[in-house]
């Protein structure tokens, strides 16, 4: 039969395990000394109570007596005690003692201990934010705390020697008993409690000392005690029979309702007991003070003084029997106590072995070896680790000689712990770390040699050894060796693999850490602990990410996805599948190849999980609920209108058919990028230009249908189907978008999908991503990065121009001239106020005429066209790409562009050279006649040229005043005006300098004037230059302003003979001097003739067309 309080205790334990324990367990690596002293090898006080006392405390506070006393053994208020060991006094701070009922002062059977450890482990469920930080995860600390606590009161050691015995009786026992034998005297109750039968089993067997200091406590519940009871008289009676400091009366049951702060106080400590939900009910703060005084008295008046006295007594006895030659010789001749091996290795809780021998035939307190061991344990509890170490070292050879393997292993283990804590507490190295490790190696080996019963102690030693060697490479090695030597215990093996992995991380062995952490996860999974296996995998994945181990990360992510789905976490499972496929897509070019079978398994599992979540209703899944998986890979290639189309409303059917036809020059509303040059740099646009060409491609009209292009790629090697593909927009109310037709993608296939987009209102339309359904099961979405998003602006009205030109001959000779007329049409919805032109090869191969500039400055109404004349000249041999860009400004201030380009191939043509200058002579009206000889050469291999008979030569002064009068000095012989390929001709002319200027217009005047200015500018800054891209030498020019008029530019006018007689050209000989050493000095007249007055700039432009 169970007592009601036992039933409640078991129920509360089950509830605690089911709801999860949120307590932070003590970690061996966080505070090693506290872990050893408060948990693994804690000082103990046993509680011996009458049944009436147990019942009174339980009914008053729903707690057992040890639970009631536990916080006041040094946990609620830290205790500092004065101890004396080895002839010197010391202060021990933070001394604690653990209270335990005498019936519980026995080692827990292994099966029960493993069950308790498993429950403690299962109560610490991994959280999502837990990482590899720290060596011990909380579930390992919980498991280890339960394991080491269950190893207390083992019969191979006396570290669990009680330092005090608390005898508890109740005033309710003073009432008449049921058999009406009268009133029970409390003194008699205490005497009965002191009987040996009430002591712990090991004390009754002589392994532990049963005569620890005793504290007598009388529990008084006013509601259950006899009326009119005099507590002071009872206390005086107790103090008259026992030491006054060892007597105490505790009043309970004065309150009713629980106080949360007090309840929290009782849940502190290294091992939180399984408390009832109403535990500590009725405990008042006054009772807390009484309990604190009682706990302090137990420690300072009973436990510590008794341990000091007992240690001194044992030390004297050991000294008497160990010192001297006679004692040393006796120890040398002592016979091994071999029967102890079978006794100590017998089943826990049995007092006899198979031969019927009791444990007293092994080691008891009557043997000197056991007294030395007890002395070491008492010194350890009193924090004198150096003295404890000396006792352990002294006795271990005797234990080994007696073949007491478990006892010797325990002594080795405590020697290492004492040396470790001495190193921690003093900061000095009492024993080298290698020596501590050797002690632990001996302990583990002897525990294993002692038999399976001590495997748990061997694991405790191995774990402590790993903490001692933490940070060294041999720490995880030794732990793994011990874990492998001991038969697999499932949970224990997984936990130690995980700890070894974390120790390897501290030692810098990252790859080994990852391997053993994955192995721990597999072991957890095999044992049925999937959440803990998942925690191991999650900790490993970041370590492998970005290091090329894609086959490992794929396997881990797939395993994690399956396990989370099995645990019912569908959202997490989808997230892991998403990470898996995104890794495959984004790292396709650098990752290892995945087999087709694995890809099928991945996709099949992914679709199964999604089917279980979404079912069959996939059309109306919001974007936020869709899966952000990049399968297939989707990207927006651009949003644009049809090339050459006029602006028209969607569905209106209006289209200007006369504009936008392709011509030999070719044009588009977007610039064509060639080589590494952009339109802006080619056309000479400065940084201050309003917008680059084709900026109007980002502006559309409300209702204008535009085309969005998507590139869809299948990263897998297996076919997939994509349905319901559509775009996502920042403001979906601004636009209507079509839905793409279903797509089937074979392995590694890429397709381009065009989708119609129609703006419904003005504003900026931003494409933020896309959404689709994968294999009719998975509603997916893709979000475009902000820096890669495509956008267009919808407006009510928009300027738009389109340009066209008739065919232009792509083959030219050097100096040949062409006069294309470019037709510009306003196909937008608003008037163009101004046209501006930008073109490549400025001042060298193309120029706009003055008429073209005037035409471009006029407003261009909607639907109107304007013709703009240009001139193209073959300036030097080679392949040239001629580009023009027109920028139109609408009445709204918006800008539109149209761009033209053409490849032109220039071949050798006619070359003009000044061969010589003769002596000048005086002419009419004080003019000067200069004879000039020119050499004309036809370098064309196929064409014959014909010189202009009316006057093939024109001469312009560098001052740009106009053309000079040129007269033929030597007529061209008949028939020689035609110059065949490779032929040359000499021309001699009189040039009249200082006379009247001719108003003759030169077709190449635009280029000649610009090149003359360029030559003058270059010659003023450099000594020897060439004239632009013409490759002509530029002679040095003196800076004397009076001689500026002595430099001239010669122009030869010619045309092609035969069927190509419509092709004309001009050859230049720029920046030449007509001076001669024998030139006569001309005296200037006092009056100035109107004919010799220089023309102003406007007149010059009118006469010559110069720009």
UniProtKB/TrEMBL annotation:
It holds the Pfam family TRAPPC-Trs85. It comes from the Eukaryota. GO terms for cellular component: TRAPPIII protein complex. This is Trafficking protein particle complex 8. InterPro entries: TRAPP_III_complex_Trs85.
